[in-house]
């Protein structure tokens, strides 16, 4: 079948590669170099001049741009969409995306919101891999009006890409992801900046870090534009999660300031238990 890939970067590119010959994608990207590179890598079979021209004969449309660009993409493709096409996104937040979809798409019931819980701190078509979703979860957030056939097809496509598919309401999705994904990014950004500032004042810090800094800050190198959009499109959830982190930091600060070793041990073992609970498969 013909498809359209709008945004030919890490996630969209990986999905197209994972589907292989099942779908022949026309690619559109704001960055012509990324679209050309996606063509060279066989992610898309042709490059389209615009989002509207990419979707013209497409039965599957995949929107894989930073979440806050979803509205402009939906507006651009609305007049050119085939009446039977399945439209999906891959965005990291869902409530705001669904509001935009309802506003701009002529057939929101044929849209299926998808979020593959897989990614890396890298971006662009060169980072795309057919194995990115293998064994990982993909969350679908259908609307009450979502067409059941389209939902089934979306599930089959993500399963074909190697993912384990679950359904979750958009608001619940955003609240949960604020804690397990958005907060760790915010914490890594703050941590890397704080240590980076200290290193700017004392060059002895450069090259001195061990595994702790490396492990805790890998995601601090993530794409700024993508993360700006994720954090702003899930403001309430992210702020709630940040309040929880503030409280934990305050407890640690109090225990350290008071020289309370017993309390500190308790807080550190509670952290280990929390990590195990979250990582339970
Ligand atoms: P990416 O590698 O940067 O790919 C996005 C591509 O879309 C880039 O080529 C970008 O071009 C292009 N683009 C940006 N705005 C556009 C627009 N308005 N119209 C057309 N093309 C546009 O990013 P990604 O990591 O694949 O992220 C894509 C989506 O997946 C995001 O919504 C993100 O929230 C979601 N997601 C990401 C991860 C992750 O770990 N990275 C995981 C799950 C879901 P430029 O390079 O010029 O900006």
Largest sheet: 8 strands, mixed
Based on helices, strands and strand pairing, what is the structural class? Answer: alpha/beta
- If strands are numbered along the chain, what order do they take across the biggest sheet? 3-2-1-4-5-6-7-8
Classify the helix fraction into a percent range: 40-55%
C-alpha end-to-end distance: 35 Å
Number of helices: 11
Low-confidence stretches: none
Strand composition percent = 5-15%
Let me know the number of strands.
8
Small molecules bound in the structure, each named once: NADP nicotinamide-adenine-dinucleotide phosphate
Mean pLDDT across all residues, rounded? Answer: 97
The SSE string, one letter per element, is EHEHEHEHEHEEHEHHHHH
Basic shape: elongated
Determine Rg (CA atoms, Å): 21 Å
List the topology elements:
Elements: E1 2-6, H1 10-19, E2 24-28, H2 32-40, E3 46-47, H3 51-55, E4 60-63, H4 70-77, E5 86-89, H5 95-104, E6 111-116, E7 137-140, H6 148-160, E8 164-167, H7 170-201, H8 211-217, H9 224-233, H10 235-258, H11 261-279
Parallel strand pairs: 1-2, 1-4, 2-3, 4-5, 5-6, 7-8
Antiparallel strand pairs: 6-7
Helix pairs in contact: 4-5, 7-10, 10-11
The chain binds NADP nicotinamide-adenine-dinucleotide phosphate.
